[in-house]
Design brief:
Elements (H helix, E strand, L loop, with lengths): L5 E3 H8 L3 H10 L6 E3 L2 E5 H9 L6 H15 L1
Helix pairs in contact: 1-2
């Protein structure tokens, strides 16, 4: 798939193995992958999905905990 390929919400959710509703919640909260708004449609670039997933790739659960703690500190 080309890095500039646009995917619908359902296609992006399938690619990420998430439900479309979970992807929607991430979008509303601002924690999901970057998206394009084309009229009423929401589209995701394939390379943005890869980038978002890569930023959430860890070697151990302690890395996840440290990232979550840093994120909560940044939110305050």
């Amino acid at each position: 798939m080309d890095a500039t390929t646009f995917l619908t919400q359902n296609e992006a959710a399938e690619f990420l193995r998430l439900s479309p509703r979970t992807l929607e919640r991430h979008r509303v909260a601002g924690t999901g992958p970057r998206f394009v708004k084309a009229g009423r449609r929401v589209l995701y670039r394939h390379d943005e999905l890869d980038r978002w997933a890569a930023a959430r790739t860890f070697r151990s659960t302690s890395e996840v905990d440290a990232a979550a703690a840093a994120e909560s500190r940044d939110a305050t």
